[in-house]
Design brief:
This protein has 47 residues and is mostly helical. The chain has one domain. The protein contains 1 helix and no strands. The longest helix has 44 residues. The chain is rod-shaped, with a radius of gyration of 20 Å. The N and C termini lie far apart (66 Å). The mean pLDDT is 84.
């Protein structure tokens, strides 16, 4: 396998991973935000 081909595969793989991560991060952040909101509401309800 040539260096050029390896570089091409590496770039494509990196792009795919970056795309998946960029789609995943906002949903994780939203889940965290929702979880924190629920925890705060729960604490206020207990207090």
């Amino acid at each position: 396998m040539s260096g050029q081909r390896l570089r091409s595969i590496a770039e494509r793989t990196t792009a795919v991973i970056a795309h998946r991560v960029s789609r995943t991060v906002p949903s994780i952040a939203m889940d965290w935000g929702t979880g924190i909101d629920q925890a705060v509401t729960h604490v206020h309800a207990l207090g």
